[in-house]
């Protein structure tokens, strides 16, 4: 048709004026895991400068606190984001990630309660969902190239939608330190919640608070607990009197504290309050990162420390010897899966199903004494208790256990030892 001529994807000739005009094409979008902290705040302008994307900020609330989520939309928009999604995933986090890990008894390297590890999959899961909702071509995160979180975020994205592009600015930009990051923020008029005088890297959620960086990077330094701790008293400031707490479990899940039934979020908050008061759950840990280096951090996990001790105490009453032994062995592997970011894998899902089955009879009450950083069992009851007083007592109970039966059992149990001893004696003749 005369009067029309294709110029390029954005320009056409008007049939009336015959003047070129531009039809604005929408920019591609990327969804950023956004916390409002130093790293993610400066990533917004960096993405716009280096990728020319519209940045959709996504904050997944896993209990980091209202201080971190209040005013977040205004802050994200002021930093250059085109929109912000604030998602309340607190209950989901506890139900689908924390409690399955608690049931397993998993402690990474026998100490770490995995507070950062099992929060990353739920955050990344919602990143993918928001990316689908807004039609984004990719997702971005603020994890460093030296840490574990980059693996946890990206394995989750790969498992849920491998077509999404993943951008990790810390692996690309010229910023080398948190001091550099603050300089970048100041140059781009981006408000950040820290200064060069307080550059601890912290991660908070319902389950824990972690602290890394600054003086903690030297293992010879004692942590400055008075300045560091957020949830907990120091040992010196903890009460001089012990306090008792009773937790009721149903199938391995905590449901009440001191005879008061509580929703999961409130239950964890109450145990954090009680444990923090008595300096419970403070851990100074040097751990082996997935990427091959050692790192040091201080973790506060009051509620988690109480619950792990309580559940282990209850299981000793309700689970048989073979199940307990296999569960402890399996917990090591499960802790590695969680730590390494392999949440959305067939093995993790299968192991969680196994732990659910094991927990079918783990129901009852556990009383604990909290005192100066200690959690001490103080009595356990369960309708599924395998402890039988008639058998365990020193008295005679012919119907259930006859002392004389032990003689034949021991002779058979020790048969390999007797045979070996006879062989050695014969060989010396």
UniProtKB/TrEMBL annotation:
Gene Ontology MF terms: argininosuccinate synthase activity; ATP binding
Coiled-coil region: none
GO biological process terms, semicolon-separated: argininosuccinate metabolic process; L-arginine biosynthetic process; urea cycle
Top-rank taxon: Eukaryota
Domain spans labelled Arginosuccinate synthase C-terminal: 200-418
Enzyme Commission number(s): 6.3.4.5
InterPro entries reported in the protein's UniProt record: Arginosuc_syn_C, Arginosuc_syn_N, Arginosuc_synth, Arginosuc_synth_CS, Arginosuc_synth_type_1_subfam, AS_cat/multimer_dom_body, Rossmann-like_a/b/a_fold
UniProt keyword terms in alphabetical order: Amino-acid biosynthesis, Arginine biosynthesis, ATP-binding, Ligase, Nucleotide-binding
Pathway info: Amino-acid biosynthesis; L-arginine biosynthesis; L-arginine from L-ornithine and carbamoyl phosphate: step 2/3
Listed name of the protein: argininosuccinate synthase
Organism this protein belongs to: Strigomonas culicis
Record lineage: Eukaryota, Discoba, Euglenozoa, Kinetoplastea, Metakinetoplastina
């Amino acid at each position: 048709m005369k009067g029309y001529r294709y110029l390029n994807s954005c320009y056409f000739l008007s049939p009336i004026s015959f003047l070129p005009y531009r039809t604005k094409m929408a920019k591609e979008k990327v969804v950023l895991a956004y916390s409002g902290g130093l790293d993610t705040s400066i990533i917004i302008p960096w993405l716009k400068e280096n990728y020319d994307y519209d940045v959709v900020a996504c904050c997944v609330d896993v209990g980091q606190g209202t201080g971190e989520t209040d005013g977040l939309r205004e802050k994200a928009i002021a930093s250059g984001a085109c929109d912000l999604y604030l998602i309340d995933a607190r209950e989901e986090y506890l139900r689908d990630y924390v409690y399955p890990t608690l049931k397993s008894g998993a402690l990474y390297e026998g100490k770490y309660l995995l507070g950062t590890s099992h929060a990353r999959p739920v955050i990344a899961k919602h990143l993918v969902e928001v990316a689908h909702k807004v039609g984004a071509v990719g997702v971005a995160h603020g994890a460093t190239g030296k840490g574990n979180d980059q693996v946890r975020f990206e394995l989750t994205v790969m498992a849920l939608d491998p077509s999404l592009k993943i951008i990790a600015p810390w692996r690309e930009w010229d910023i080398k330190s948190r001091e550099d990051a603050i300089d970048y923020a100041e140059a781009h008029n981006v408000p950040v919640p820290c200064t060069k005088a307080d550059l601890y890297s912290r991660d908070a959620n319902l389950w824990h608070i972690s602290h890394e960086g600054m003086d903690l990077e030297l293992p010879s330094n004692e942590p400055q607990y008075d300045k560091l701790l957020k949830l907990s008293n120091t040992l010196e400031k903890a009460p001089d009197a012990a306090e008792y707490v009773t937790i009721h479990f149903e199938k391995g899940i905590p449901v009440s504290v001191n005879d008061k039934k509580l929703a999961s979020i409130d239950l964890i908050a109450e145990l954090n309050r009680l444990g923090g008061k008595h300096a419970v759950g403070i851990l100074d840990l040097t751990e082996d990162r997935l990427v091959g280096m050692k790192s040091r951090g201080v973790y506060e996990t009051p509620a988690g420390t109480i619950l792990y001790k309580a559940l282990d105490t209850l299981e000793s009453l309700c689970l048989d010897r073979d199940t307990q032994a296999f569960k402890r062995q399996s917990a090591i592997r499960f802790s590695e899966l969680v730590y390494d970011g392999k949440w959305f894998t067939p093995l993790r899902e299968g192991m969680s199903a196994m732990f659910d089955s094991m927990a079918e009879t783990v129901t009852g009450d556990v009383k604990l004494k909290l005192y100066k950083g200690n959690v001490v069992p103080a009595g356990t009851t369960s309708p599924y208790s395998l402890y039988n007083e008639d058998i365990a007592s020193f008295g005679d109970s012919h119907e259930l256990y006859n002392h004389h039966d032990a003689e034949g059992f021991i002779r058979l149990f020790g048969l390999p030892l007797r045979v070996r001893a006879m062989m050695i004696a014969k060989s010396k003749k």
